[in-house]
């Protein structure tokens, strides 16, 4: 009996936790079909266009299958039975011509969209553009604002209607940065820097996530992007500057070594060269561990 009650209690705890998580995400979650930025709107349009083009062959095929099954039923004496029929040029033209047209249309949509929605291609900005540096870690996101001199973990703010230029790298394994309602996902890779431009056209909180499995903490690797008015964004920056925490080599390594999810953290000051050190592997957990081991070996000798 005790075991059964314990099982019920554990199930209730899990259900309650899942409910709370769902409620937390419901306020910020949105899919690719609810775009609030030009890149996301373009992606949604490509998805819709592709579905419509494919339905041109899918719907007639389904209808033809049903029609053939009904017409050539055993009770239909009017259906012509042709046991020696081999082929038909007209049917071959239809069978191969329509899929070829579908492929051509899809290729055109994808080719045009790939150029217009290139993540590295700048987006027209209605306000002052902003620079943001992104580092993916295990299992959290670090955001650095080089122009404002602040940084944050698992929370990201940007002014609405202003283009955000992201420079992204990884302090760990390869990952994927994705804000579904704002646009294109982009890879973050160790020792490399990728570029991404996004713009939020509506004030609100947007769900951001890792879109590539990266280990046991992958499911916790999400963040909130806050699109704020220019005034509220400046207030957020000023509030962040009041934090006594500084993001430098030591604090970064301490953060990176903790292979676990993290609550939002704000850093009031930063090392301006930190992102370059991480991207060029001058500062990495592995290298630091090697340096410490070498230093310890020299001391023991």
**CATH architectural grouping of the largest domain:** Sandwich
- CATH class (first level) name of the largest domain: Mainly Beta
Average pLDDT across residues?
A: 83
Return the structural class: alpha+beta
Reading the helices and strands in chain order gives HHHEEEEEEEEEEHEHEEHH
CATH superfamily of the largest domain: Cupredoxins -  blue copper proteins
Query: End-to-end distance, in Å?
Result: 63 Å
Number of helices: 7
Tell me about the largest β-sheet.
6 strands, mixed
The total count of strands amounts to 13
The percent range for strand residues is: 15-25%
Q: Stretches where pLDDT falls below 50 for ≥5 residues? A: 1-29, 292-300
Rounded to an integer in angstroms, the radius of gyration calculated over CA atoms is 27 Å
CATH topology of the largest domain: Immunoglobulin-like
């Amino acid at each position: 009996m005790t075991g059964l009650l314990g099982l019920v209690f554990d199930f209730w705890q899990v259900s309650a936790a899942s409910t709370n998580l769902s409620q937390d995400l419901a306020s910020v979650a949105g899919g690719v079909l609810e775009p609030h930025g030009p890149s996301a709107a373009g992606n949604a349009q490509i998805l819709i266009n592709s579905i419509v083009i494919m339905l041109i062959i899918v719907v007639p095929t389904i209808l033809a299958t049903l029609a053939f099954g009904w017409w050539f039923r055993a009770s239909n004496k009017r259906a012509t039975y042709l046991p020696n029929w081999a082929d038909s040029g007209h049917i071959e033209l239809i069978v191969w011509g329509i899929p070829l047209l579908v492929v051509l249309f899809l290729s055109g949509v994808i080719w045009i969209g790939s150029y217009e929605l290139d993540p590295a291609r700048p987006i027209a900005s209605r306000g002052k553009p902003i620079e943001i540096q992104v580092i993916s870690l295990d299992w959290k996101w670090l955001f650095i604002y080089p122009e404002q001199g602040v940084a944050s973990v698992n929370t990201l703010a940007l002014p609405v209607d202003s283009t955000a230029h992201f420079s992204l790298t990884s302090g760990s394994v390869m990952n994927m940065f994705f804000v579904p309602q704002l646009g294109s996902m982009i890879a973050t890779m160790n020792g490399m820097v990728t570029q991404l431009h996004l713009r939020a056209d509506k004030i609100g909180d947007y769900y951001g996530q890792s879109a590539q499995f990266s280990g046991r903490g992958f499911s916790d690797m999400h963040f909130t992007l806050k699109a704020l008015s220019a005034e509220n964004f400046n207030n957020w920056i000023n509030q962040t500057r009041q934090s006594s925490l500084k993001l430098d080599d030591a604090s970064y390594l301490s953060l990176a070594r903790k292979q676990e999810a993290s609550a939002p953290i704000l850093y009031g000051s930063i090392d301006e060269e930190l992102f370059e050190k991480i991207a060029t592997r001058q500062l990495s957990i592995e290298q630091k561990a090697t340096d410490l081991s070498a230093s310890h070996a020299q001391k023991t000798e």
